[in-house]
Amino acid sequence: MTVHNLYLFDRNGVCLHYSEWHRKKQAGIPKEEYKLMYGMLFSIRSFVSKMSPLDMKDGFLAFQTSRYKLHYYETPTGIKVVMNTDLGVGPIRDVLHHIYSALYVELVVKNPLCPLGQTVQSELFRSRLDSYVRSLPFFSARAG
Amino acid sequence: MAIFSVYVVNKAGGLIYQLDSYAPRAEAEKTFSYPLDLLLKLHDERVLVAFGQRDGIRVGHAVLAINGMDVNGRYTADGKEVLEYLGNPANYPVSIRFGRPRLTSNEKLMLASMFHSLFAIGSQLSPEQGSSGIEMLETDTFKLHCYQTLTGIKFVVLADPRQAGIDSLLRKIYEIYSDFALKNPFYSLEMPIRACRGKATVGWCSGTWTLFTQPSWTLGPSWCGCFVGGRRQPCWPHKSLQPPRRLCSNCSAWQWC
Question: Coiled-coil ranges per the record (chain B) (predicted)?
Answer without folding.
Answer: none
